[in-house]
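Figure caption, in words: inputs first, then the predicted bound structure.
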Amino acid sequence: MYDLLIRGGSLVREDGIETADLGIAEGRIVDLAPELDGPAREELDARGLHVFPGAVDIHVHFNEPGRTEWEGLSTGSRALIAGGGTTFADMPLNSTPPVLDRATFEAKRQAAERGSHADFALWGGLTPRNMDRLPELAGAGAVGFKAFMSHSGLEEFESPDDYTLYEGMRLARELGLIVALHAESNSITQGLSARIRSEGGRSVRDYLRSRPAIAEVEAVSRALLLAEETGARLHLVHLSTGRAVTLAAEAKARGVDVSLETCPHYLCFTGEDMERLGAVLKCAPPLRDAGEVEALWTAIREGRIDTIGSDHSPSTLDLKERADFFEVWGGIGGVQSTLGVLLTEGRARGLTLPHIARLLARTPAERFGLTGKGRVEPGFDADLVLVDLDAEWVHTAEDLHTRWKYSPYLGRTFRGRVRRTLLRGQTVYADGPHSGGTFPTPPQGRFLRPAAPTPQEVTP
Ligand SMILES: NC(=O)N[C@H]1NC(=O)NC1=O
Ligand SMILES: [Zn+2]
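Bound structure (1-[(4S)-2,5-dioxoimidazolidin-4-yl]urea present):
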């Protein structure tokens, strides 16, 4: 007896699209065949819809506890599942206190167990202050350690210098956990900012000038050297330039254990858009030019970029409404739009559906040891997204489930609409005029502890 039988969906599998039934029991996919007999407690007609694995967004800032007014685990996870995600990994900042030891980790875990509508993993921080706490963070179940090579924007989350990063990577390697790096040079970005500000620079263009591509390229190359030397597993978050991608891909080809992430905003917008739209698009690294956007799409198409995370990092409106662009909070609200961007812009550039599923679900799940996540296959959790690929729609503020109803994607036309999201076989989101009311109470999200890397993944 199945708990649920999903009939006739076009399943997005590794080797292509296959129309078949899915039998689900105890939260898992147990059978997959052209026609299943049942019986089942419930049936769902998915004919005409594509069935994707729920997206695994390895890079979000939901900011709870401490800055829940910026986003929050409940609102953030609702937006995630409405956009086709079922798992996220929350960054150790901008929640406050930041996650730097076991106590702060447990506090966030408890908050997420109460409030999250999606399954979740949690990052710990790597800063000069908590090097002695990395083992206890690993013991608590951290998915990895996040560090900023440039200023994080928050005083309480300090950047490691090269020595600290070197020691931190050695320790992370011993603990078997990935180090995720925001790779921009502190020295270059701070130096340029100071000079530009002393000359009176306050505009978007001035901000863009303060964080040139070389700041990313230099930091990425230093991070790769340190990872190569220490044998640490490295994840480069939000890469924004073709040159940084090339350096990282070359390092990977010679055996450095590195994964590459970019974000939808680097694929959709340019510095000129930032000048036009302002605060809603402020981010670091900043947006680049159209040539970089195309270089990133080419790198995705050719398989050099592994994952796409949203880097969802909104704030309250007052922090977005500053005359001095350097003082505007840097962070984009985009957690609900990642699948939409890939289905629209990605497909327009020739990405296949299995490739999109790999970028958003399978690869992040495998890379971060989130066993049972990321694939539409027997044995995997029934974390599924039913999508009407032909539906064309214009994104409005009413669609947003985030705490603040702003997003750079408002007014944009998307092709492909999420009709339903299932988490471990349970419908947690259904599209419709009153979709705000369909989220289950209590929230169903569960904590995920990363599995140890498989032996072949461990660098000798
Ligand atoms: N602290 C924080 O969320 N920073 C993020 N925002 C952004 O635009 N880039 C980041 O790294
Ligand atoms: Zn981030």
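DSSP finds 13 helices and 17 strands in the chain.
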